[in-house]
Amino acid sequence: MATSVDFSEFVTPTSLNLVPGQSSSSSSSIVYLAVAVLKRAHGQDRLPVDNHRPRLLFRTKSGPLIRQEGDVSEGTMSGFDFDKLPEDILCHIHSLVPLQEAARMACVSHRFLRSWRCFPNLTFNLHTLSLDVFEGETYKNKMVDRIDKIIQNHSGLGVKTLKLDVSTCFQLITVDQINNWLHAIIKPGMLEIALMFPLRSKRVFDLSCSLLSCAASSLQSISFFYVGFHPTLSSGCFSSLRSVCFRYVDITTEELGCLLSSTFSLQKLEINSCDQLTFLNIPSHLQHLTILNVSWCTNLQRIEIYAPKLTTFDFRGPPMKIITGDSSHLKDVTLHGALFSGMIQYARTELHSFACNLQTLTLASVKEDFNTPMLPEKFLHLRNLHIYFESIGFQSYDYFSLASFIEACPALENFYVWAGEYDHVWKDPALEVSDADSLQIRRIPGFHHSNLKIASVNRFFPSKSLIELIYLIIENASSLQWLKLDTAYRFDFSGMCKRMCKEDVSQALKAVEVAKRYIGCKVPSTVEFNILEPCKRCHIPKLYEL
């Protein structure tokens, strides 16, 4: 192993903003802060000035550069010598910062340079390697070269986390090169491995199980994206594994069974777009498994869950046979029909057979061929129900049939419906009457609900069946406190109004008019009633665009 590392080979001063006389502001501040805290703990308030040390500059978050003399890790004071700080404490300080910052700290400190060779958290991606995709194709070669240099100069010891994302430059890397990287890094004691390769690449990297076998007993988390993984019964015992995430992984039903048979501490399992799976069996020995996510596995036909402590189940795909053993702990279920129809009806007819103790249920569908039937089965503990109609074809759906869910959930407190996308052409002829009293409304004799507090309808539009559902709630939910009808797109994650086209704004204004005419006059005074309209600043001007 080389006795010195030329960091310029894989981290250039320009890319890290390091120039003569000035260190990285963020990394230096981290080191300075760490040293200051440690010294203050020993009763020291100031760092010394040594005129014989080279000068380094530090930038605080809110102030100008602060001049500090010498190697930031080598300052001494009366009663405290940083050079005598135990190596394990120094390495711990170093391990708390991301890879990019750790490399910067190693550039300005000999002691951190030593700990760099056993840096425990290796995260390789465009950001941590200071690369810019706008450089053109050259950034790909730089990425491969920098990863290679870092691994070559690493001792291979003490690595706890490896996150390798080469999805942008996979075509430049050979299988042997990847295997060499993994062989150099994966050692006993490793806790986490995450590998990400490009989706729909012409080749799939097959991860050798023998590579993981040496760290099998210590691994706590594995996450693979577009990888071939084929474990067998002799692949090792993953006794400490707590989290597994497979996305676009080539793995068969039998191979996944071999992996699960050797795990005993698993807490979270995510299977996404693993199309070789036809049957998923979650065995009973997974006593600690609480979260199961299964999504978009196109060839999956059946799921059997026998993990006794499962609390959260998220499924996205077509309605299929789902069997559970002990579902007494299963409290939160999401069923998303993806591109397939009938998930709302499936939930009402089949869900009770494998999840009867739910507290929160989220349903999503893109198409329903039949209305929701009235059935005797009840969800006695369900408190939160969210239903999403995620396409434009639901205008003719009978929303009033959703009363089946409300009636089946006597403890329901929060009821939310996303009514679907606006159809600019469709009009409900039943709403041609002029007032609420002239509207012929369906009712359910003997219907009553005593716990529902909040009812919300997003993307409310002029629909008689939707109005009938709302009437049913406000007339029979004695505990109702808040009714909200949202006609707009509301806000995005940045807090700004989401964009609406001219036709959507026009349809939303019609919905506002219908809500005021048919619903506003029926809401009891004890209920807070809100109609959320299109934003006058962001949405209404759309009406005047050519």
Briefly characterize the structure.
With 546 residues, the protein is α/β, with parallel strands linked by helices.
Core attributes:
12 helices; alpha/beta; three-stranded parallel beta sheet; 15-stranded parallel beta sheet; 3 domains; 546 residues; Leucine-rich repeat, LRR (right-handed beta-alpha superhelix); single chain
Itemize the secondary structure elements and their pairings.
Layout: H1 25-41, E1 55-59, E2 65-69, E3 76-77, E4 80-81, H2 87-95, H3 99-108, H4 110-116, E5 121-124, H5 138-152, E6 161-165, H6 175-185, E7 192-196, E8 205-207, H7 209-213, E9 221-225, E10 227-229, E11 243-247, H8 253-261, E12 268-272, E13 279-282, E14 291-295, E15 302-305, E16 312-316, E17 321-324, E18 332-336, H9 343-350, E19 360-365, E20 384-389, H10 403-408, E21 414-418, E22 454-458, H11 464-476, E23 482-486, H12 502-519, E24 528-532
Parallel strand pairs: 5-6, 6-7, 7-9, 8-10, 9-11, 11-12, 12-14, 13-15, 14-16, 15-17, 16-18, 18-19, 19-20, 20-21, 21-22, 22-23, 23-24
Antiparallel strand pairs: 1-2, 3-4
Helix pairs in contact: 1-3, 2-4, 3-4
Domain At1g61320/AtMIF1 LRR: 150-535
Domain F-box: 83-117
InterPro entries: At1g61320/At1g61330-like (IPR053772), F-box-like_dom_sf (IPR036047), F-box_dom (IPR001810), LRR_At1g61320_AtMIF1 (IPR055357), LRR_dom_sf (IPR032675)
